[in-house]
Amino acid sequence: YSWLESNRGLFQVIRVQKTMLFLVLLLIVLLAFFGMIGALVMLVAEKTREITILKSLGARERSIYRIFLLQGVLIGLAGTLLGLAAGLGVCWVLDTFPVFEIPPGVYPGSDRVPVRVDALDLLWVVGATLLICLGATLFPARKATALKPVEGLRYG
After folding, report:
1. DSSP string of 67-113, one letter each residue
2. Cα 49 to the chain's mean position, in Å?
């Protein structure tokens, strides 16, 4: 028997664990996505009067759209960079200090949790996160451009 065949059960458990971890992280990302949409929609609602004044003064819809798009992207970029720093910090702590001790023989040559940070994985995660943030800003930005100046001044 090879070591792959003798540890088949362990690898199946790891595969299931990886799938479940992916689903949990997907739910967290979806919650953040809808939270960001909610925050930006509230911002549009709070700034209705200002938006309609800008439109009344001649601001183009494209300019209003860009303002809200830029604001959402900046919020997403700040959150992504903070999350990246926190994740890399946790990886460094796990790699440097014996936070979790593992019984000998689980990982040959080490009694710590193995940590490997792959730059390509980081690029994929950061890129996907920024795309999700961009997607979350589209609806509120369109909502801001759809405001009618007369209604905004009357009810805002």
Report:
1. HHHHHHHHHHHHHHHHHHHHHHHHHHHHHHS-SSB--TTSBTTBSB-
2. 30
Using alpha carbons only, what angle is made at residue 12 by residues 19 and 108, rounded to the nearest 5 degrees? 105
Tell me: the pLDDT tens digits for 65-79? 999 899 889 988 999
Binned at pLDDT 50, 70 and 90, residue 156 comes out as: low
101 has which bridge partners? 112
Of 151, 145, 153, the closest CA to residue 63 belongs to 145
Give the pTM.
0.73
DSSP secondary-structure letter at 59?
Answer: -
Angle, alpha carbons 19-25-31 (nearest 5°): 140
H runs (alpha helix) in 1-60: 3-6, 8-46, 48-56
18 Cβ contact list (under 8 Å, min separation 6): none
85-99 pLDDT per residue, tens:
999 999 999 888 888
